[in-house]
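hey m, so remember when u said the tokens were messed up on ur end? i reran from scratch. heres the input so u can diff it against urs
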Amino acid sequence: MSLGQRRVGATDPPLRRPVAPMLATPVDAVPEGADLIHEPKWDGWRCIAFHEDDRVYLQSRAGRNLTTYFPDITRAVRTLPPGVVLDGELIVWERGRTNFALLQRRVTGGRGLLRMVNDHPAHYVLFDLLAAADGRPVLDLPLSDRRAQLERLLGGAPAQLTLTPQTTDMGQVSDWLTEWTVATGIEGVVTKRLGSRYQPGRRSGWWKFRKHLTTEAIVAGVTGSLHSPETLLLGRFDRWGRLRYTGRTHPLHTDQRQELGLLVSAAAASASPPRRRGASVAAAVAGIVVWAAGPARGIAVRAGGADNGGGDRGGHGVRTPAMEAPGPIRAGQARHVGVRRAAAARRSRRLLRRTMSPIAVRPVCHD
């Protein structure tokens, strides 16, 4: 049985991992209603924590084991009664704001992990309870009851275990979207029905509204075919007029691939690959199939996520070039862009150290 198909109810035996987290349906406006409660949408990693008899296990949204990377959270969860299963978001604070890059470094830190734990401890922002202290599943209880049990459970818990705020006040929601996105880096608002059951892997009774930012980027290339691109490779010109790779979009939907394929093909017909080294290295990093646009062709991109006070980074799309750059360049791709594989790898590393902040996640087509 797959992660998304696992069904667990209040009459089942103790929860066994993995358990698919309940999901929220994206919406274009924050829902309103007397039976709804609102919470901040945190910019971190979804995590389900299991306090088993002899250990704590941290599970990612996709079912992967995160335990090794968060020894500080493991210690904090161990202070709770055995049997509890929690749902929340892992975040790392820096100067009063969430810092997604520091969160990512937990996985890539290697021998420096303990230093990162000491310098930038993680926090586990909790918003749901899946199993009570005796190991009894509480998924069939309404959200309001699960929340009350979670509040009692966290009384006296370590500071790294944080209860997420809730409100029914739309004025407070407005403050979250205007002030908290700038001050703390939250992504938006999650709205939940107070009577909702916890349904693993399902989208029912939960909604998410993500604040979006808009910026512009140069389409420097594509992955996939020219007429039906899979992703767009984006860049920006630095102060010296060199095009620098800044990231790529999420995979495009079918309708987006068709519409953007027409625009990209038209641009490619009249453009040649940029001659500057920064641009050619960008091609090597991404292993692109074809140059799609010259300096005159731009595209607006909508960055879903936190407002960083004037920058362009945001959302669950491009976080850092290192995380978004595809894997090793295959034979043929490297030759296509005129760079040998070994040279491409060396230049990629140098480029990633110089690259500007990543900017884009979702393309928005416009003329």
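this time it looks ok to me. Residues 334 and 340 are 6 Å apart (CA to CA). if urs says something different then somethings off w ur setup not the seq
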